[in-house]
């Protein structure tokens, strides 16, 4: 399952990160940016993450997924910006068109293909009196 291996990758890099940069409390939220071209089920990703994180220090942390729109750059006319979308009534999603909105030649995707961890929500544990 695609989402399962993605969740495994996310979890692995988070645990490595936390080993080197310990946080002062419990991680409650993991903020993730997902490009619109990354095809996955958010539900399945969250589910896989919660199963895989059980028993680790990220157990119980919630994935917060933010969708990043597709941006393109055109090598022919220099356009750089949002991609055009194909939207049909009745569809549940808009399909990005990977050609230049100005000259219609093929454009390069400059964002929208990535899945990245952008931040952690940490609940600080109250400092206990250590006198
Ligand atoms: Zn162009």
Explain this structure.
The chain has a single domain (2-124), classed as hypothetical protein PF0899 fold (2-Layer Sandwich). It is 24% helix and 34% strand. The protein has 2 helices and 8 strands. It has helices spanning 2-20, 42-53; strands spanning 25-35, 62-68, 71-73, 80-82, 84-86, 95-97, 108-111, 115-124. The longest helix is centred in the first third of the chain and has 19 residues, at 2-20. 17% of the residues are buried. The mean pLDDT is 90. Bound molecules: zinc ion. The site of zinc ion has 8 residues, from loops.
**Percent of residues in helices:** 10-25%
Strand order of the largest sheet: 2-1-8
Tell me, what is the CATH class? Alpha Beta
Low-confidence stretches: none
- Mean model confidence by pLDDT: 90
Structure class? alpha+beta
- Report the C-alpha radius of gyration, rounded: 19 Å
Strand content: 25-35%
- Give the H and E element order: HEHEEEEEEE
Taken from the alpha-carbon principal axes, the silhouette is: elongated
CATH architecture field:
2-Layer Sandwich
Compute the number of helices: 2
Total strand count, please? 8
- CATH level-3 fold name: hypothetical protein PF0899 fold
Measure the end-to-end span. Answer: 51 Å
Give the helix/strand layout.
Elements lengths: L1 H19 L4 E11 L6 H12 L8 E7 L2 E3 L6 E3 L1 E3 L8 E3 L10 E4 L3 E10 L7
Parallel strand pairs: 1-2
Antiparallel strand pairs: 1-8, 3-4, 3-7, 5-6
Helix pairs in contact: 1-2
Summed up, what is this model?
The protein is α+β, with helices and mostly antiparallel strands and 131 residues long. It contains two helices and eight strands, in the order H-E-H-E-E-E-E-E-E-E.
């Amino acid at each position: 399952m695609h989402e399962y291996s993605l969740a495994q990758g996310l979890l692995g890099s988070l645990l490595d990160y936390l080993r080197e940069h310990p946080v002062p409390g419990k991680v409650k939220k993991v903020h993730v940016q997902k490009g619109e071209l990354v095809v996955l089920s958010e539900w399945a990703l969250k589910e896989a993450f919660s199963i895989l994180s059980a028993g680790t220090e990220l157990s119980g942390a919630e994935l917060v997924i933010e969708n990043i729109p597709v941006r393109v750059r055109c090598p022919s006319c220099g356009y750089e910006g949002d991609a055009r979308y194909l939207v049909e009534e009745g569809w549940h999603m808009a399909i990005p068109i990977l050609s230049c909105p100005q000259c219609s030649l093929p454009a390069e995707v400059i964002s929208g293909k990535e899945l990245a961890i952008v931040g952690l929500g940490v609940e600080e544990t109250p400092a206990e009196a250590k006198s």
